Amino acid sequence: MTISRRLAMALLATCLAGPAAAQTLLTGNYYIEHCRNALAETGTYIAGTCTGMILGILFVGRNLPLSARLCTPPDSTNKQALRVVVSFLDANPHRLHEPFGDLVIDALRTAWPCRAVPR
C-alpha cells in the first residue's frame, strides 16, 4: 500500500472516530472528576476547562431572554457555581452520560431557579 493511501485511510478513520470521541469527551462522565479537581484546586488543564465551561454558560445564561435565563444570585461566586455543578453531578449519576453543558444548565437552574416576573 502506498504512503498516500495509508495517509488517506488514517485520515478517514480519524474523521469517522471524531464524533464518537467528541460525544464521550463532552459528557458528565468525562468532566465529573475534573470538576472535583477544580473544586479542590488540585486540577490540571482539564479541570480548568470544567470551570471555563461553567463560567461560559453562566455568562451567556445571564444574558438570555427571561424564559431561558440563568438567574444566579448577584453575589454568587464562581466557586459556588462550581460547587453547585459538582453536587448536582454527584446527586444524579444516572445522568452522567448526558452532555456536560446540559447538566450545567440543569444544575444551576435547580439550585437558583428564576423567579416569575410580576405583571
List the helices and strands and how they pair.
Layout: H1 3-25, H2 28-40, H3 45-61, H4 78-91, H5 100-111
Helix pairs in contact: 2-3, 2-4, 4-5
Instruction: Output the helix-strand order.
Output: HHHHH
Shape: globular
**Largest sheet features:** none
Mean pLDDT, all residues: 82
- Stretches where pLDDT is under 50 for at least 5 consecutive residues are 7-20
Counting structural domains, the number is: 1
Structure write-up:
With 119 residues, this protein is mostly helical. The chain has one domain (27-111). The protein has helices at residues 3-25, 28-40, 45-61, 78-91, 100-111. α2 (28-40) crosses α3 and α4 packs across α5 (100-111). The chain is globular and about 35 Å long. It starts with a helix and ends in an 8-residue tail after the last helix. Mean pLDDT is 82; it is low at 7-20.
Feature tags:
119 residues; 5 helices; 0% strand; globular
Compose a concise summary of this entry:
With 119 residues, the chain is mainly α. 66% of the residues lie in helices and 0% in strands.
